[in-house]
Amino acid sequence: MPDPVKLTIDGKAVEAAPGTLVIEAAKCVGINIPSFCYYEGLSLQAACRMCLVEVEKAPKLMAACTLPVAEGMVVRTETPVVAEARKYTLEFLLTNHPLDCPVCDKGGECELQDMVFRYGAGESRFVENKIHVEEKQWSPVVFYDGPRCILCFRCVRICNEGMGVGALGIVNRGAVSEIAPNHGDHLECDECGMCIDICPVGALTSGTYRYKTRPWEMEHVGAICTHCSNGCKTTLGVRNGKIIRGNNHDRSGINGEFLCIKGRYGFDFTSHPERLQSPQMRVNGKLEPVSWSIALAAVAKKFGAALASDGRIGVIGSTHTSNEENHYLQKFARGVLRTNNIDHHRSGDVVTLLDALSGTTGSLASTADLYESKAVLVAGADLSSEQPFLAFQIRGNYRHHQAHVYVVTENEVREDGIAAESVRIARGGELEGIRSLAERLKTESELAIVFGDSVKGEAVRDLVAFGSSLGIPVKYVALVDYSNSRGALDMGLVPELLPGYQPSNRPGMTIGEMLDSDSLDVLWVVGANPLKASALRAADAFVVVQEMFLTETAQRADVVLPAASAYEKTGTVTNVCGEVQRLSAGPSTMGAKPDLEIIGLIAREMGQAAAAGPWAPDKVFAEIRATVKGYDVPMPVISAGGAAHTTPVNGRIPVESRPDLIHSSRDTLFTSGTLGRYSRMLGSVMEGRRR
Amino acid sequence: MLYNEPSPHEVKILTRRFGLPDSASIKTYLKTDGYVAFEKALKMKPEEIIAEVKVSNLRGRGGAGFPTGMKWSFVPRTSPKPKYIVVNADESEPGTCKDRVLIENDPHQLIEGMLIAALAVDAHAGYIYIRGEYRYLIDIMDKAIAEAYEHGYLGRNLLGSNFHFDAFTHTGAGAYECGEESALLESLEGKRGVPRIRPPFPAVVGAFQSPTILNNVETFCAAPAILRDGGAAFAALGIPKAGGTKMTCLSGHVNKPGVYELPLGFPVKTMIEEVGGGIRNGRKLKAFVPGGSSCPVLTAAECEGLTMDYDAMARVKSMLGSGGVVVMDEDTCIVKVALRVMRFYAHESCGWCIPCREGTTWLRKLLQRFHDGHGQRSDIVLIGDLAKNMLGRTFCPLGDAAAMPTISFVEKFREEFEAHLDGRPCPFEHAEQLVMQ
Hints:
The complex is a heterodimer. Chain A is 29% helix and 19% strand. Chain A folds into four domains: 5-93, Ubiquitin-like (UB roll) (Roll); 97-207, Alpha-Beta Plaits; 280-347 and 484-651 and 666-680, 3-Layer(aba) Sandwich (Rossmann fold); 350-478, 3-Layer(aba) Sandwich (Dimethylsulfoxide Reductase, domain 2). The mean pLDDT of chain A is 95. In chain A, helix 8 crosses helix 21. Chain A is α/β, with parallel strands linked by helices. Chain A has a seven-stranded mixed sheet with strand order 15-14-27-26-25-16-17. Chain A has a five-stranded mixed sheet with strand order 2-1-5-3-4, with helices on both faces. Chain A has a five-stranded parallel sheet with strand order 20-19-18-21-22. Chain A is built from 25 helices and 30 strands. By secondary structure, chain B is of the alpha/beta class. Chain B is globular and about 75 Å long. The mean pLDDT of chain B is 95. At the A-B interface, helix 2 of A face helix 14 and helix 15 of B.
């Protein structure tokens, strides 16, 4: 570590590493130098000239965003000269700005407004005509209003550097310069909306949010995205119980500034017109709306009857429900319903990975590890499409730390562009491809391996053996599909495993076995849609479905109970890397109840409330922390909205992981299982329609 | 082809082959000491070449006047990266038209200059970035490059040595900004021509992230003479601290406009009266632009006893610039000149930074309104204010280039601005126009 450089900023002594920019060094002593174009983590522009500061012995004002610290440097950030320079720069900036703040989406959270409030002149000296160009729609979700644009180029850089898409550029010259999309008049990109979020003004606006509300009329709820397994924090803007927008206003999540199209716009399923708002019961062969009490009574009666007659009960859990719900569901199934016939859609071989890693510590990578590891290997997955935040982390690692990225996939992937080496190999053959990189990988100082569902069973064991043979620290991520796929495994929604990967002494039926059984008496499906692809063989089975929509499975149900979405309840979820985060309830949908409450109400109706235990999320989580291995996470971290990395198990798991049942749905950026079908926004973008 | 008759005052060093039959051909070039300097340089050590250039007191002819020898010495010769030679032939400064005649009449002199620079820093490739409007020069240059390859002055193992050098032409696309060295490099690399953050300077991180010598055409063209006749001889042609001759582009209200090679330190008055043949129709001098439109304008009084060199111009708070001299007689409307200059900069501002992008356009609109007779007294102050708010606060010198002349117009010719007030028509409305609108 080289000696720190000593300098003075506004009279405060600062020590900073050589090469630190003055604008960053100032932050260390709580001085915020204003800027538009400077954005931490993106390349430097020095275009906005707002960060000009006085430096002793410099002939003119210097841009703090490109000025490295120097020994003995004396910087003043708030002198009359500096304030005047900022005032006149803002005066220039406002000459062609429409000043339409009263109707601008950004009003109230606009950096230009704040800056003018702080440094701007009281009146304008500009009396010439302003340059006006019409607003443009680039895609269903991205609009560009040129006159509002201050040309800070943040959008161009985040798209190019952060997303690796490069869908934005600059056209024209001088005062008529504009940001332009890659296809001339429209965008073809990830539709992630990062450009909108990073825009300091109202130049880029969201197609789903524009002109709907003022920012201060909303509550901002830091929720966890309920689509893919990455566990990004998305800030829901909620007004009158309805989500108006999603963005990453709250950057405290593991994803920081990142969100993909699903996290930003994919909330609209919550207010889809087909959303179930009342229980339904089959009357004369047709589902009819009934009251909660009638529906619950019917369910309790059937469950009780099946128990009394030693009937066969099958339970299918969800990859989107909370850990609390999953834990309570399996506890109820195993304890009250006395069955191990419980399963969920498995999408990654976490079980074999944990077993193969038994005896080691620190071998499970967190999302932060993917940003920091000196080398990353991606096998059998198109990360940019399937696990967008993990891909963002790896791109960031490459840009900021020059990480070596290795890719072993069947098809070309975006990570090829930053890869030190890419290997093309058919799905299932990834291990062979990885072995071909052995010599190069041995020269790395550490490695994080991310692998998809095509690496499963023995291949995972071989992969871990290969990793150990490299002689360097290796961490792993077994990719899974959905927001709580990992939590479902951790909580034991599998016939052969109890919570915390403890083997069950009496394994029950898998999903396939339940559906194929001709003697199933009751099938209870909580937030899953197994009948989309398979048929239920037992024609007489009584089917209870907790769901948001009348899915294929719900249509076959005898009782449908309307469930709340992840955005409408509290609880915790565990992401692909095993990081636990807390859900926050934002909107509410009349009639729907959280699955935990529904299960509790069924228990009560059956007279089993005491056996099932309390169904308050906090109480269930306390039980999870106390009983599930690896979940004894620090509560302050969780309560404050942080992510706690779980370490699920450290011992052999003496069961077969059933690789035959592991299949990823391979959802892309524009699909998301059932939820995706009910998100009209995901279907509206051309990239989504094409897939 | 030559556009003007030579003047007896000229000292013909760079222009020595001008007027010779087929002066652009390698045949003529070789007959007149062509590539002799290169042969000499091949036998010299790099540091000797740089020392010779330092002795010559050659200063950058693109406008900034930075000592060339020193610039070359900044290139880390031992860097493992390749080094590049880049010729700035993006001559776009209004009033400047010297690089085109140098390339048109003697392209091999430029190639030889590049070869000498290449030897000085161990470069093996060079690019000649020619402004898009000079389309025809690319053909001339390409022909000369082809001839040089044919005769073994470009390519591998030049003159039996183990020195290799390739030269290429590259066309600009019509942006003034690309005359700024870092924007030129961006454009050369195929990107949008916007300036880079400096430091690092091109000598260390230039073309393709590698050390680069980037000079103006005229600067490179001076190198063969320096090596051939010695740095001291070149230095002696000029004045202390500024050696050699300067290509001077004399335009405006003079009787004999043209490009003249004059020794540094040449008296302004003699230049106008004798070289330029005096002001047309015997009128009086009103204003004088010494080195392209970005230089602060000088009044007739300031031109008294003034000489054409870097330091003398600095003393009167202007610049020698690129040698684009514009002479304006008493019938010139300074408000209109200010407007014309600002129209140029507003059109050419690349849009990168706020003060330049918005300031030039605002000033253009304001000056247009003012010249149209809709100005107010407060606007005169505002014009100066806006220019001062741009000055020194922009990302690259383009903003300064727009601000400096504007400030000088308002400060030195305030009465002309006042004459446009109160809806009065332009006092020079009926004056004879030199240039078409």
